[in-house]
Amino acid sequence: MTEKDDDMEIMEQERQKPRERHFRQKTEEQADISAERTEVKEPFNPLIEVVNYNFFYGATQALFDVDLTMPEKQVTAIIGPSGCGKSTLLRSINRMNDLLDNAYHRGDIRIREQSIYDAGLEVTELRKRIGMVFQKSNPFPKTIYENVVYSLRVAGQNNKTVLNEAVERSLKAAALWDEAKDRLDESALSLSGGQMQRLCIARAVANRPEILLMDEPCSALDPIATAKIEELMYQLKKDYTIVIVTHNMQQAARVADHTAFFYMGRLIEFGETKKMFMSPDKKQTEEYITGRFG
């Protein structure tokens, strides 16, 4: 390397320092906010175990030897740059990837120590235990009421009392009851973007799942709607185990109890969110969190 190259590298490092300081300051502030909210440290009770997990889309490997344990009734955030395998892992937990041609896995994922690939476990029964909220809100072209009770009707439940109770319970859980209780017979498509996403959360919890998977649920929302969803996650974790994929580092710092950082299909680091954002163990994690790449 020439003296000129050395000088250019030093200049680039100096140019990056203000950006890194800004990223670290913001994430540390959000981690402090999250820590203040969770004054009592919840016990780490394992619920979801990913064991030596590899996933392939045909000849392309998307996940490599992932070992990860996620705790019950806490929020686990999965972060990392685009294409690092975040959504692949999330969709493996409820076996949505089974629907893809030429996709296959090696290794295992267990919920309460039972393999989700157990031959005696029906996929439909597994998915009843796992709610899913997607990046883009996807309400059905039905009324608000029928959106919420959809999974119950599919399961054969048509008792009006039961359905009414489920609608009120689920909309309250999604912090949407006060806004929608007088509009239950209106089309779900008449709601605002943020309301639609909360309706999708209500629909996901109507069947009382154990786990709620969220694939970038706030990426298409404005800051006010995002804040409502994040506050909602804080409330929902009292009853549900939440796994969220997010590109937003500050969001992970605000809402997650634990964070997993993925890069190029590999789990680089997993730990308590505040520690990871303030003093990560791996240099690669620090470089990503401070904005050096990604």
List the helices and strands and how they pair.
Layout: H1 3-37, E1 46-57, E2 60-71, E3 75-79, H2 86-93, E4 103-111, E5 114-115, H3 123-128, E6 130-133, H4 144-148, H5 150-154, H6 160-173, H7 177-180, H8 193-205, E7 211-215, H9 223-236, E8 241-245, H10 249-255, E9 258-263, E10 266-272, H11 273-278, H12 283-289
Parallel strand pairs: 3-8, 3-9, 6-7, 7-8
Antiparallel strand pairs: 1-2, 1-4, 4-5, 9-10
Provide the CATH top-level class of the largest domain: Alpha Beta
pLDDT < 50 runs, ≥5 residues: none
Average pLDDT level: 89
Structural class call reads alpha/beta
Number of strands: 10
Radius of gyration: 21 Å
Molecular shape: globular
CATH superfamily of the largest domain: P-loop containing nucleotide triphosphate hydrolases
Number of H- or I-type helical stretches: 12
Main sheet overview: 6 strands, mixed
Verbal overview:
This protein has 294 residues and is α/β, with parallel strands linked by helices. It folds into 2 domains: 27-115 and 210-294, Rossmann fold, CATH 3.40.50.300; 139-208, no CATH class. 42% of the residues lie in helices and 23% in strands. It is built from 12 helices and 10 strands. The strands form 2 sheets. It has a 6-stranded mixed sheet with strand order 6-7-8-3-9-10, sandwiched between helices. Helix 1 (3-37) runs parallel beside helix 10 and helix 6 crosses helix 8. The model has no long low-confidence stretch (mean pLDDT 89).
List keywords for this structure.
294 residues; Rossmann fold; 10 strands; alpha/beta; four-stranded antiparallel beta sheet; globular
